[in-house]
UniProtKB/TrEMBL annotation:
Keywords associated with the record: Nucleus, Ribonucleoprotein, Ribosome biogenesis, rRNA processing
Primary role: Required for pre-18S rRNA processing. May bind microtubules.
Primary location: nucleus
Protein name listed in UniProt: Nucleolar protein 58
Localization, UniProt: Nucleus, Nucleolus
Length: 427
């Protein structure tokens, strides 16, 4: 409609066109072959406001209800076009999921510690043998009282060596007795721990699937957890994609950055990206280099994830493009970073999913070892009756007063030797 209107008015030299949007007026003014002058000022806005208020009277047959419905439909269409709405492209779900995952970790840790402390009064030895919180809670639910441990099959919960250690510790446990009512409340709390843990695993799988659908290249480079935290910290995938690599590198370390700028010290080298597996495998001197390179590659992958439209690429619909093709750039970029890290470190890299400590070493899971019980030492018993104890002679130590007196005598002798009278007598 606008093109038809401009085509009919292109030969008019003294015509003026009232435009409500200043940006549209500027674009019309730049079109070649037009001699009319677009006007966009406060007067134009007042004219349009008056037209909108009296539109039903200006157009016969138009009702106010129809105008409201048309405005609502137009608003929805514009918003959907602006957001490029798709069920698989909603990064809000990722932000909520990673926030819930962090809250679950805190609550789960609190509940698990409470269960161990509570049941530890009854069976304190099991806390040192069973380290896994989920296995600990399941053992409580299945065993109940400590005395039933030896008759309970725990092979579906614990490995054989740990099960043997638990049953052996239950025989000689020093815990106190508890009532059935106490055990019931402990088991109710253990059920909460089991339920939260299972839901956390389900939520983690959901987050992994969402990240693979929304940001496959970012997931390939930094992992789903770090990628989700970066998106949540920025507010949306589009905001993160607009950020430069230097911002992505220190995202999450804003306090340290502004403190360093205020005190004129060195700025931080990494923020949330520090928890990526590639940065964790680098040693201290190379962490900053790998973080900078990984942030640069992640910035490119983020723009592909946020701005690519597979359905408009000419290769078919978006559903026809498989996951490997979507994440091809991320796999290629990760390979380049790995080769650079291998050249810097001079050693082969660890496979994905291996836990790395802050010092760059692999974190080994703690293993329980069954040790021989300490034997009773009869020689350490005290004497009974009127039997005299053999007293060994203890060498007497000189008191501080005696040491001080001896030191003062030596000092007096030294002063006498250096006094002038002693020197004259010698002469």
């Amino acid at each position: 409609m606008l093109a038809t209107l401009l085509d009919s008015l292109k030969d008019e030299k003294k015509a003026s066109l009232a435009v409500a949007d200043p940006k549209l007026a500027s674009s019309i003014n730049k079109l070649p072959g037009l001699t009319l002058t677009p006007i966009s000022d406060t007067t134009t806005n007042e004219i349009y406001r008056a037209i909108r208020d009296h539109l039903p009277s200006l157009i016969p047959g138009l009702k106010q209800e129809n105008i409201s419905t048309m405005s609502l439909g137009l608003s929805h269409s514009l918003s959907r076009h602006k957001l490029k709405f798709s069920p698989d492209k909603v990064d809000t779900m990722i932000i909520q999921a990673i926030a819930l995952l962090d809250d679950l970790d805190k609550e789960l840790n609190t509940y698990a510690m409470r269960v161990k402390e509570w049941y530890g009064w009854h069976f304190p030895e099991m806390g040192k043998i069973v380290n896994d919180n989920l296995a600990y809670a399941r053992v409580i639910l299945k065993v109940g009282m400590r005395t039933a441990t030896s008759n309970t099959d725990l092979s579906d919960i614990l490995p054989e060596e740990i099960e043997t250690a638990v049953k052996a510790a239950a025989e000689v446990s020093m815990g106190t007795e508890i009532t059935p009512e106490d055990l019931e409340n402990i088991q109710l709390l253990a059920e909460q721990v089991v339920g939260f843990t299972e839901y956390r695993q389900q939520l983690s799988l959901y987050l992994t699937a969402r990240m693979a659908a929304i940001a496959p290249n970012l997931t390939e480079m930094v992992g789903e957890l770090v990628g989700a935290r970066l998106i949540a910290h920025s507010g949306s995938l589009m905001n993160l994609a607009k950020s430069p690599a230097s911002t992505i590198q220190i995202l999450g370390a804003e306090k340290a950055l502004f403190r360093a700028l205020k005190t004129k010290h060195d700025t931080p080298k990494y923020g949330l990206i520090y928890h990526a597996s590639l940065v964790g495998q680098a040693t201290g001197k190379n962490k900053g280099k790998i973080a900078r390179m990984l942030a640069a590659k992640a910035a490119i992958g983020l723009r592909v994830d946020a701005l690519s439209d597979w359905s408009a690429s000419g290769e078919g619909k978006g559903d026809d493009v498989d996951d490997e093709e979507r994440s091809a750039l991320g796999v290629l970029s990760r390979g380049k970073v790995e080769r650079h890290l291998r050249a810097l470190e001079g050693k082969p890299l660890l496979p994905r999913g291996v836990a790395v400590g802050p010092n760059g070493k692999v974190a080994q899971p703690s293993k329980w070892e069954v040790k021989e019980a300490r034997k009773y030492n009869a020689d350490a018993d005290g004497l009974a009756g009127d039997e005299p104890a053999a007293i060994e002679p203890v060498p007497e130590k000189k008191s501080k007063k005696e040491k001080k007196e001896k030191k003062e005598k030596k000092e007096k002798k030294r002063r006498k030797r250096r006094s002038p009278r002693s020197l004259s007598s010698k002469k």
